[in-house]
């Protein structure tokens, strides 16, 4: 298949994009129009819903926390919805600081973001394991998302691409696309100093690097983490490749 547009232009979501086309293992590439990542889908217009239906979207995996998904619920025609909640620790910690009369500074925000990514690896393995179970069940087009589609979704996308054999430098490039695409909500303006908002609402290479370092140092590397913590052993990896990789030009 010829390369397709990676970013899907929608009115109600700015960070909806395809993981297809990346070169992976054995000379194959990730299939187009099977795996999508996004910010939340509660603001989609009827035209957006039609665009997603035209893509054949059949499944949505929501990584938002309980309060987030309750406050901004959505339902898409003919799309099966699966919730795998990961609570937004940065938001909770920022509220705790505000309640105690402390202002969130840029260095504090940086530390919180790194802590968040460490927690993805250590504390949220069950949710990411469940995401892979959905991927392995069938290959109908699936989108996984959180609120901004950058941290929880970014780490999930990294795990999927790495499991498919996409080189780490390419995975990082995909991760950083959020900074070009995502439009943060206007309502957050003025809620914190701009340097803090830029840290919280953007991604940095060091955030994902922190998570990958934890995978390496605390879990014996990617292969062992995928196999032992996420249930993605050799047979499952082969099945994942069968479902989501294709020969170049295939």
UniProtKB/TrEMBL annotation:
Belongs to the protein-tyrosine phosphatase family. InterPro entries: Prot-tyrosine_phosphatase-like, Tyr/Ser_Pase_IphP-type, Tyr_Pase_AS, Tyr_Pase_dom. It comes from Melaminivora alkalimesophila. This is Protein-tyrosine phosphatase. Pfam families: Y_phosphatase3. Residues 126-188 form the Tyrosine specific protein phosphatases domain. GO terms for molecular function: phosphoprotein phosphatase activity. It comes from the Bacteria. PROSITE patterns: TYR_PHOSPHATASE_1 (PS00383), TYR_PHOSPHATASE_2 (PS50056).
């Amino acid at each position: 298949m010829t390369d397709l547009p990676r970013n899907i232009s929608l009115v109600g979501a700015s960070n909806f994009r395809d993981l297809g086309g990346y070169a992976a293992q054995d000379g194959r590439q990730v299939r187009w129009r099977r795996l999508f990542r996004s910010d939340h889908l509660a603001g989609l217009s009827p035209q957006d819903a039609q665009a997603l239906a035209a893509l054949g979207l059949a499944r949505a995996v929501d990584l938002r926390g309980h309060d987030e998904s309750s406050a901004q619920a959505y339902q898409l025609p003919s799309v099966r919805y699966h919730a795998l909640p990961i609570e937004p620790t940065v938001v909770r910690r920022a509220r705790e600081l505000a309640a105690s009369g402390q202002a969130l500074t840029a260095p504090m925000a940086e530390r919180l973001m790194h802590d968040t990514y460490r927690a993805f690896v250590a504390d949220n393995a069950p949710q990411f394991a469940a995401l892979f179970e959905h991927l392995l069940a069938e290959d109908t087009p699936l989108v996984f998302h959180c609120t901004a589609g950058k941290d929880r979704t970014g780490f999930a996308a990294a795990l999927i691409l790495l499991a498919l054999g996409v080189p780490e430098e390419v995975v990082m490039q995909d991760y950083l696309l959020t900074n070009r695409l995502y439009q943060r909500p206007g309502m957050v303006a003025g809620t914190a100093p701009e340097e803090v908002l830029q840290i919280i609402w953007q991604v940095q290479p060091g955030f994902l690097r922190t998570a990958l370092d934890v995978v390496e140092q605390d879990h014996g590397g990617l292969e062992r983490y995928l196999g032992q913590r996420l249930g993605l052993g050799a047979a499952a990896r082969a099945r994942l490749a069968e479902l989501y990789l294709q020969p170049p030009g295939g």
